[in-house]
Amino acid sequence: MENRLRTLRRQGTNTKGLLEVMGKAAPVIAANRSIRLAGLSYRNGVLELDVTAASLQELDQLAQRLRQAGGMKIDVRNASAGRAEGERTQGKLTVEVSS
Question: Most exposed of 6, 8, 71, 94 (fewest Cβ within 10 Å)?
């Protein structure tokens, strides 16, 4: 994610809002090696992250760390625990820069 962020900055794309929210969220997500980013989208100032984690607890901890980083509103949506042993938890987080 950090590489993509650097690429967008170099391109000079009109992505100020996206770069701001990714600049705040990327270090927090990258610091947790058990979280995997499955996809992302950005619309109307809101970054939506599709992630997988080892457990619902880890997903909740990620949301807490993002909130603690400051300047972001975080919502966890559509979290579902893996049904089979060893299956990862899937979740969707929305990240928005606070005013």
Answer: 6
**Given this model, what pLDDT does residue 14 score?**
47
The span from the CA of 61 to the CA of 30, in Å, is 14
**For the chain, which residues make up each domain, given as ranges?**
2-97
Task: Output 45 or 51, whichever has higher pLDDT.
Answer: 51
Cβ atoms 69, 30 nearer than 8 A = no
CATH topology of domain 2-97: Gyrase A; domain 2 (3.30.1360)
Is the pTM above the cut of 0.90?
no
Query: Which segments within 23-67 are labelled E, that is strand?
Result: 36-43, 46-53
The count of other CB atoms within 10 Å of the CB of residue 41 is: 9
